[in-house]
Design brief:
The protein is an alpha+beta fold. It contains 24 helices and 24 strands. Strands 11, 12, 13, 14, 15, 16 and 17 form a seven-stranded mixed sheet that branches. Strands 1, 2, 3, 4, 5 and 6 form a six-stranded antiparallel sheet that branches. A five-stranded parallel sheet has the order 20-19-21-22-23, sandwiched between helices. Strand 5 and strand 6 (about 180-185) form a beta hairpin. It is elongated and about 140 Å long.
């Protein structure tokens, strides 16, 4: 039966793994698709920019061509020496493209011959005496120049006898009494070599094609640069068509996988890898811990039996000779060694659990945190459903690890109870609110019956009392499909200062057969016949509950009948009644994190894991805070000394210098010791909490939620109230939140002028939503706000930058629409300054 139960449990865990894996893979695929689109958009923008650069280089020759033409217009007849002098002048002033040669071409009266009469080439394409009319591309350029005397005409590209890609520039000019044109021969290889050297990145491949619709040389399409076809590994090809004079060029830009090392899919791969590793590792850990626990218990039993045998032998030996006493001493030593081995095994298990808790909680922090952020960004119901699956699976794994840690602490005797004044009736009443949603979903009834004479304040461990109630009520609701659940509480007076607190949880659920009512309190045990798919569970909840009750000097029993329901009764004996003046700890007032806005402040985030730093930035995007980053404790100290942040979020486990040492150094510095330090730790051990409470001003345990982070920051940072407006959308800061002083008001006209200069850019990016342009725009606006001391402008620019960094395409349009209102707000301040 136990073997069958193990197979069922394994099937449940495998189904849970499969569901989690599917959700992780799908979420990673969505992130990869978005990264690929951004990568191709950038390649398209870069190809357009490089094309425009190459064309601008070609226009450099227009001025040079006109300068040479003035030589012919200003001379009765240009000689060969004068032409070479003109070439020297051109070469001395040329830019990135070297000039191949210069020549003067005489035009016959019928324009049927274009003969080279002067040339800087003694042989080659522009050799004196050559008739260029036989070269279709050259003929087109020269004829076009003669038809439009004031224009520099670029001819179609062509290959010379050596295969070089060339183009001819022509400008009409006379040489004495001869009509003709000044021509310049340009080597296109040099042009594109220059672009390749200076601008074209690795992975962006250029092919240049001459498109000729005039059937020059009976060839309509001529490849000038590169191969005829794109490389086989090409991901995408962008085409840009240009026309200049007689040249009709089409630039083909092939994007290869090596461009920028491909799309940045690091986050997607990390989410997939972390999720896969975490799921497999967590379930492997459960099996390993269970096996280790059995081994340790078996070893302790064996050593205990050996010790008992040794004790008996020692008693007999003491009645005999000195030899017997020596033997007894040896047996005692064996017993001590056995006890040390057992204690060492328990210490090793505790250290292993502490380390595994740290290693699991660290990636959990990124997985659960980023799923919380993505949950606010996704709008597609199916995608949100997949994301909810990831988050639910992650929380289930975290809850399971916490249960195992609690159980191990109890078994090792390291779980300490914290007795303090506790409002017991309030704790019972809170349960109705906690389970209200689940009870309403299943359409159950809930009864709360608290004895009116139950003492209000008792000395109890409130955390563990609530844990017991939640475990028992959670099971009652889970296993009840109709009827209801009842929680009742009463007491028996022991004496004037002590009572026996008794409470019961009664349900009308599936019930428990009498033969199984004791086994359900064992670790990893569940009721036979219980549906894993329907009810889930690992068999740890009731085991931990019983151990906690026993530690609180209590006992638990169950009365049940299969098919009719169950009643769990708990009695905590000899509970102390708190003195009349004692009061339970007051809970802090709830904070609406969606409406919270901090006063301007700077926070330093010290963590060696970049994902953890990005998570904090994502949580605090809209809170009005400036964030600094450090990768280790040494950097955190240096940045704190130079930047003086208002608060430090300090990870404990870091290279170079850990969080403990860094915090001690900060607190030892008189100038820095008042800066609050909030620790971020993945450890779940009590010893870690005690050390953190002595060293730091506060601490948060990973994985941390947005609500936990903001509640902790609110203890140390000044808050400002959110301003209510009639519009539903977010508005920029108003006079109620920011009032410029006299010095700032004097410079408002200049600030308005600079912001108005950005209005055209704002209109364009609001329509195109191009990420790079928005990023540049937000940086400029933020710098303006900082320069003029106008906080709402700099804060708005930083908010826009954060949304760009998170690729938040839902919030970006909404934030961009606030820009005109910001300008209007400043103009209203300016009018107030002018009005007497």
């Amino acid at each position: 039966m136990f073997r069958t139960r193990s197979i069922v449990n394994a099937s449940f865990f495998l189904l849970l793994i499969a569901g989690g894996l599917y959700a992780v893979v799908y979420g990673g695929r969505v992130l990869k698709d978005q990264a690929r689109k951004t990568w191709l958009d950038r390649a398209n923008q870069e190809a357009t920019r490089i094309t425009e650069t190459g064309l601008s280089w070609l226009t450099h020759f227009n001025a040079q061509q006109r300068g040479v033409a003035t030589l012919f217009y200003g001379s009765q007849r240009v000689t060969e020496d004068e032409l070479f002098d003109a070439l020297d002048i051109v070469q001395a002033t040329e830019g990135s493209i070297p000039l191949a040669s210069l020549a003067f071409v005489e035009a016959a009266a019928d324009d049927e011959r274009f003969t080279v009469s002067l040339s800087t080439e003694f042989e080659g394409f522009l050799e004196p005496g050559t008739d260029l009319a036989v070269v279709p591309a050259a003929r087109a350029a020269i004829a076009g120049a003669l038809e439009m005397p004031d224009q520099v005409i670029m001819g179609p590209a062509f290959h010379d006898a050596e295969g070089r890609p060339l183009t001819l520039l022509a400008l009409a000019a006379p040489n004495g009494d001869m009509d003709g044109a000044v021509v310049t021969l340009i080597d296109l290889t040099a042009l594109f070599d220059g672009l390749q050297r200076l601008y074209i990145p690795l992975g962006l491949h250029l092919r240049l094609v001459e498109e000729d619709d005039r059937q020059i040389g009976a060839q309509l399409r001529l490849t000038i640069i590169g191969p005829d076809e794109a490389p086989p590994e090409t991901v995408r090809t962008f085409s840009i068509v240009t026309n200049s004079g007689q040249a009709h060029w089409e630039f083909f830009w092939d994007v290869l996988p090596t461009y920028l090392d491909g799309p940045d899919t690091q986050l997607a791969e990390l989410v997939q890898l972390s999720g896969l590793t975490l799921i497999l590792f967590a379930f492997g850990l459960i099996g390993f811990l269970y096996t280790q626990n059995l081994k340790v218990n078996r070893r302790v039993q064996e050593r205990t039996a050996e010790l008992e045998e040794a004790r008996i032998e020692a008693e007999r030996a003491r009645e005999s000779s000195d030899i017997a006493r020596k033997e007894a001493e040896e047996v005692r030593k064996i017993a001590e060694d056995s006890r040390e081995v057992a204690e060492s095994a328990n210490r090793s298990k505790s250290a292993f659990l502490a380390n595994m808790s740290l290693e699991i909680r660290t990636p959990m922090n990124a997985i659960l945190g980023f799923t919380e952020i993505l949950g606010g960004l996704l709008t597609d119901p199916r995608q949100k459903g997949y994301l909810d699956s990831i988050q639910t699976s992650g929380k289930s794994l975290l809850s399971l690890i916490n249960d195992i840690l609690d159980l191990s602490k109890v078994e090792a005797g390291k779980l300490e109870l914290e007795y303090r004044p506790t409002d017991v009736p309030a704790a019972f009443a809170d349960m109705e609110q906690i389970f209200a949603h689940r009870i309403a979903t299943k359409k159950l009834n809930f009864q709360l019956d608290i004895s009116p004479d139950l003492p209000r304040i008792l000395l109890l461990d409130e955390t563990r009392l609530r844990q017991i109630l939640i475990n028992l009520l959670g099971n009652a609701v889970k296993f009840t499909d109709s009827g209801g659940v009842k929680l009742s509480a009463a007491h028996i007076q022991s004496d004037s200062e002590h009572i026996d607190l008794s409470f019961a949880i009664e349900d009308t659920g599936i019930g428990i057969p009498a033969s199984q009512q004791q086994r359900i309190f064992r670790t990893f045990e569940q009721q036979e016949g219980q549906s894993i798919n329907q009810y889930g569970g690992t068999g740890l909840g009731l085991a931990i509950t019983r151990r906690l009750i026993e530690m609180m000097n209590g006992d638990i029993s169950v009365e049940s009948e299969a098919g009719k329901g169950s009643t769990f009764r708990v009695t905590l004996h000899n509970g102390a009644i708190a003195p009349p003046e004692s009061q339970p700890l007051q809970q802090e007032a709830a904070i609406d994190i969606e409406e919270l806005l901090f006063a301007p402040a700077t926070i330093l985030v010290a963590d060696d894991v970049a994902l953890n730093r990005d998570l904090v930035k994502g949580f605090l995007t809209d809170c009005g805070l400036t964030l600094l980053e450090a990768e280790n404790g040494r950097e955190a100290i240096d940045i704190t000394r130079t930047q003086r942040p208002d608060l430090v979020l300090m990870d404990i486990k870091m290279p170079v210098l850990d969080g403990y040492a860094a915090t001690r150094q900060l607190k030892a510095d008189r100038e820095l010791q008042k800066i609050p330090v909030v620790a971020l730790t993945a450890s779940a051990m009590k010893e870690t909490e005690e050390e953190l409470s002595q060293t730091c001003d506060g601490f948060l345990r990973k994985p941390v939620t947005k609500a936990e982070l903001i509640h902790e920051l609110a203890r140390f940072l000044e808050r400002i109230e959110a301003i209510e407006t009639e519009d539903s959308g977010p508005e920029p800061a108003t006079e109620a939140a920011f009032a410029p002083d006299a010095a700032i008001r004097e410079r408002l006209p200049e600030l308005i002028q600079q912001l108005e200069g950005e209005r055209d850019v704002w209109e364009e990016i609001s329509n195109t939503l191009t990420i790079n342009d928005i990023d540049n725009f937000s940086a400029r606006v933020k710098d303006m706000g900082t320069e003029f001391g106008y906080l709402p402008i700099s804060s708005w620019g930083e908010k826009l930058q954060n949304q760009v960094a998170l690729f938040d395409m839902t919030a970006l349009p909404e934030t961009l629409q606030q820009f005109p209102a910001l300008i209007e707000e400043i103009q209203s301040f300016e009018r107030e300054s002018i009005t007497p």
